[in-house]
Amino acid sequence: MKNLIVIQHCQSEHHINGLTGGWTDTSLTKLGIEQANRVGNALKDMLEGDYVLYSSDLLRAKETADIVSEILGIGISLEPGLRERNYGIAKDRTSKWLKERISPLPKVGRIDHRPIEGAETYREFYIRVEDAMERISDSGSENVIVVSHGGAKNHIIVWWLGLPVEALEIASFGGCPGAITIMNMFKDFHNLDILGYKRHLEG
């Protein structure tokens, strides 16, 4: 893989109705649909060469990918390993419900902390995303677009840069719904070229 573009899914119903994210499966809002069109058109203007498109199978990511794929004229492969973190019994609950029950994040050992029953630890989450990215990399495609989630995006960046999973103890990477992150090979280096580009969402 020489070029990797990660799209954070666009605004979803859970963003505006007080539900948890994770595996709570909600569709895009009207604004989210508009954002996805802006993402697709931005990529159409900036991409060179042929790309393949992979997406998390959660609705908010798949609907983002559907719009982008139509604009770019490419197909989609769904990859459940690209899902957001599993928050176990908090699925389909409100953010308020989770906040009242979640176990506080410790100062050390964060990647092995399980915040609530049935949830993934950061390490388990990373291993799942890593496995998905290795499968995508092994497909042989040089130019790849991935539509995923804010948390999963952090794990993809750690994987691309070859950082140890322990980096997730202290590292996070900015973004927002509809943001585009661009990574590539520069000589022999895994390069993080653009993080969380969002100019296409303005105006």
Concise summary:
With 203 residues, the protein is of the alpha/beta class. It has helices at 13-17, 30-46, 59-72, 95-101, 122-138, 150-161, and strands spanning 3-8, 52-55, 76-78, 143-148, 180-186, 189-197.
Please describe what this structure looks like.
This protein has 203 residues and is of the alpha/beta class. The protein has a domain at 26-85 and 120-194: Rossmann fold (3-Layer(aba) Sandwich). It has 6 helices and 6 strands, in the order βααβαβααβαββ. The chain has helices at 13-17, 30-46, 59-72, 95-101, 122-138, 150-161; strands at 3-8, 52-55, 76-78, 143-148, 180-186, 189-197. The protein has a 6-stranded mixed sheet with strand order 3-2-4-1-5-6, with helices on both faces. The longest helix has 17 residues, at 30-46. The model has no long low-confidence stretch (mean pLDDT 96).
- Largest sheet at a glance? 6 strands, mixed
Write down the CATH topology of the domain at 26-85 and 120-194.
Rossmann fold
Cα shape: globular
Order of strands, main sheet, comes to 3-2-4-1-5-6
Unreliable stretches (pLDDT < 50, length at least 5) are: none
The tally of helices reads 6
Features:
35% helix, 6 helices, Rossmann fold, globular, alpha/beta, 203 residues, 6-stranded mixed beta sheet, 17% strand
Question: How are the SSEs ordered, and which strands pair?
Answer:
Elements: E1 3-8, H1 13-17, H2 30-46, E2 52-55, H3 59-72, E3 76-78, H4 95-101, H5 122-138, E4 143-148, H6 150-161, E5 180-186, E6 189-197
Parallel strand pairs: 1-4, 2-3, 2-4
Antiparallel strand pairs: 1-5, 5-6
Helix pairs in contact: 2-3, 5-6
